[in-house]
Amino acid sequence: MGALKDSEYQALAALSDGQGQHQHGWATDDCGIDLKIIDRLHKMGLCEMADANTLRQLHPDPPHWAARLTPEGHDTLTYLPARRSTTRPPHPSTSERPQGTREVRLRPAAMDAVRLCLRLAADLHRLPAPGLAEAVRTAHRAAQGSGWRLHVTTPQLESIAYALWLEARAHSVDSANRLARESGVRHDP
How far apart are CA 50 and CA 115, in angstroms? Predict the structure, then answer.
């Protein structure tokens, strides 16, 4: 599961529009999205499908299918366009390691993805953990290589995993896989 294809992103946007057009909050088969694409979005955790009981309750005529965005789907709609148009921000300053944190090393692309999520925090459904912005601001370059060293709490590390999960929808799964390998943390909707 890698970057979202343009057709999948367009379907996600149409799904968002479709669910806003119905009082019941579900996009239905009348919104013109191919069910195969909806199934792919569902497998990626970007939308949920209505069960048979819910379908029967949708009026005036029960649709063949209905779907709505998950919080991850909404956040992907917010994140992806910003990620594809972003430039690298300036480097943060350094600081001492706070108590109750662990060191995490991120490559530049992963750090850029985390910074982008922080900039988009007001528009995301899943907010970054408290203190993550400060941890990113005080990160410093690793002594060797081009990576960044951050000192984060467990909730902050989970927020980083979520940011990299969003990055995987927009661009590349490499950073999310690396974080999971090195820290044992991965966002799984």
Answer: 34
Q: What whole-number distance in Å separates Cα of residue 178 and Cα of residue 157?
A: 13
CB-side exposure of 115: number of CA atoms within 13 Å?
A: 20
Name the packing angle between helices 71-84 and 154-170 (round to 10°): 70
Residue type, 158: E
For the beta sheet containing 140-141, the strands, ordered from the edge strand earlier in sequence to the opposite edge, are 102-106, 148-152, 140-141
- Which DSSP symbol is given to 129? P
Residue with tokens 């902050």: 156
- List of residues 6+ apart from 131 with CB closer than 8 A: 153, 156
Distance CA 99, CA 83 (A): 32
Secondary element (H or E) of residue 136: helix 132-137
Q: Calculate the alpha carbon distances from 101 to 20, 80, 135, 152 in Å.
A: 41, 30, 10, 5
What is the pTM for the complete model shown? 0.65
- For residue 23, the model assigns a pLDDT of 75
**What is the phi/psi pair of residue 86, to 5°?**
-85, 155
Per-residue pLDDT band at 25 (split at 50, 70, 90): confident
